[in-house]
Amino acid sequence: MKKVRIDIVSDVVCPWCIIGYKRLEAALKTLSDSVEAEIQWHPFELNPAMTSDGQNLREHLKEKYGTTDEASIAARDTLTSLGQEVGFKFRFHDEMRIYNTRRAHQLLMWAQSEGKQFDLELRLFQAYFSEGKNIDDPDMLITCAESVGLDAKVVESVINDQSWAEAVASTEQQWLEAGINAVPAIIINRKHLISGAQTTDLLISAITQISQSEEQD
């Protein structure tokens, strides 16, 4: 059994990040007889200056990228279809909002030390994309954290702790300096970068080649 370290740089309001992860999950399932993966998530804020009440998602995409309503509708249809393919439910709607994710990343960084980061990451993707929750709302974050077995009082403390906010910002800066300026970014064994939500077949091929070549080294 070959052990593989996989680091995923992502944001919980990035639809391609959850699609990319689900494709990776399928790849690792296919390789489960030969590869054992250790996965760690890392923060990347798509909108670090976003206010706490967020912004209408369609308006945000129009302002940031010049996305037309027609292109937005087409993109949502594509994402919904791709989500169905990998077993994830997107529920886009006209009033959907984009939110600041700093608090979410603070929790995720802390949850790693509690052995709950993986579960919380997937729970937050579900809360935002499938349930339409405000991913910046402290009460919602506490509820999600409790659902994966984390202590509510400690969670509240982490959310309000400026040192955790600074730790997230520092980590994000390190990834930017390493050349990561878009997500998802998947790094295998700390040195092989796979950018974007690549296909399951490509991921199977890449992981197989990397694990075999490094075993020979």
Automatic annotation (TrEMBL):
Pfam families, per the entry: DSBA
Cited InterPro entries: DSBA-like_thioredoxin_dom, Thioredoxin-like_sf
GO molecular function: oxidoreductase activity
Ranges of residues in domain DSBA-like thioredoxin: 6-207
Protein name: DsbA family oxidoreductase
Organism the protein comes from: Vibrio ouci
Higher taxonomy: Bacteria, Pseudomonadati, Pseudomonadota, Gammaproteobacteria, Vibrionales
